[in-house]
Amino acid sequence: MDYQKLLLDFETQLDHLEKGNGDILLKAETGMGIVEECLVRLRTTVSGKTFGSKAEEIHFFKHVKPQISSKLIYYGKLFDIESKRPRSSHANQIKYYKKQMKRFKNFFNYNTEFFNYYRRGAMSKDEKYFIRGKYDLCFPVDNYQFITDKEFSTSQDATVAIIMAYDMLIVYLQQMIDQLKDTLEPPKHEPMEKTPQLFWTGTKTDLIELMYALHASGFVNSGTIEIKELAGIFETFFNVNLGHYYHTFIEIRARKTSRTRCLDHLSQRLVQRMESKEKE
Q: Using H for helix, E for strand and C for coil, what is the string for the chain?
């Protein structure tokens, strides 16, 4: 089923939107419009049609559609959060953001069965969860248009979309909390006196994968450094703007094939270097 050009156009529009500055409410509203238009076109492509195989249908509803519908949930919740944010002290705003974050984390706590199934990359129940017409509505889903359409949805593709959206919202809220805290606390580190003339020539996605790997390993400051601080160091050191690295990381996690492409490539090239030296 040919929907690749549609997805590419969608990603280009959202990337342009996210890179721009301006009012967050306008950005969220614009984002919802872009996503809704994409879902309408994607539904026309998919509804009433048969996939080439069960595996293809599962992949679409487990990985492809949630990548898009999650953005509708994300922008909708973002608009609601920011429109109700108190315009008072930074301390009150931090308290508000933390309360919102707790709500999203509670969703994961209340839906641990499917959450754990999805997070560990399990596939044993994929035909039950991601084939149309096989409903098992044991899990609550938000009522979003086009997500619960029986010709364009499965039992749990909406739940995957919610997980992805709430992941993005939690990261957004933490980023806003960090920014507000920066105005209340002095900076922890002095900036580097000299900026190294090094330039990252790989893709930003590769650098973000490497950054998260280092953060997860605990090799930097024994694991106590915040991902935001590490991202700032990477940007300074390699003269690069990582943009919305948290969104990129969520997309890395959703890869169908290897989720560690950069690390796999580094390992392969290092082994090749060792073998070539041994032959000298």
A: CCCHHHHHHHHHHHHHHHHCCCCHHHHHHHHHHHHHHHHHHHHHHHCCCCCCCHHHHHHHHHHHHHHHHHHHHHHHHHHHHHHCCCCCCHHHHHHHHHHHHHHHHHHHHHCHHHHHHHHCCCCCCHHHHCCCCCCCCCCCCCCCCCCCCCCCCCCCHHHHHHHHHHHHHHHHHHHHHHHHHHCCCCCCCCCCCCCCCCCCCCCHHHHHHHHHHHHHHCCCHHHCCCHHHHHHHHHHHHCCCCCCHHHHHHHHHCCCCCCCHHHHHHHHHHHHHHHHHHHC
Per-residue pLDDT tens over the stretch 72-105:
999 999 999 999 999 888 999 999 999 999 999 9
Domain boundary assignment for the chain: 4-182, 204-279
Question: Residue 144's pLDDT is what?
Answer: 47
Q: What tokens were used for 104?
A: 């999203």
Distance CA 225, CA 134 (A): 45
Considering only CA atoms, which of 195, 262, 188 is closest in space to residue 234?
A: 195
**Pair 25, 82: CB distance under 8 Å:** yes
- Single-letter code of the amino acid located at 219: F
Is 131:67 a contact under the CB 8 Å cutoff? no
The tens digit of pLDDT for each residue in 245-276 reads 888 888 888 887 788 989 988 998 888 888 88
Are 180 and 93 in contact, with CB atoms under 8 Å apart? Answer: yes
For residues 121 and 103, the answer to whether their CB atoms sit within 8 Å is: no
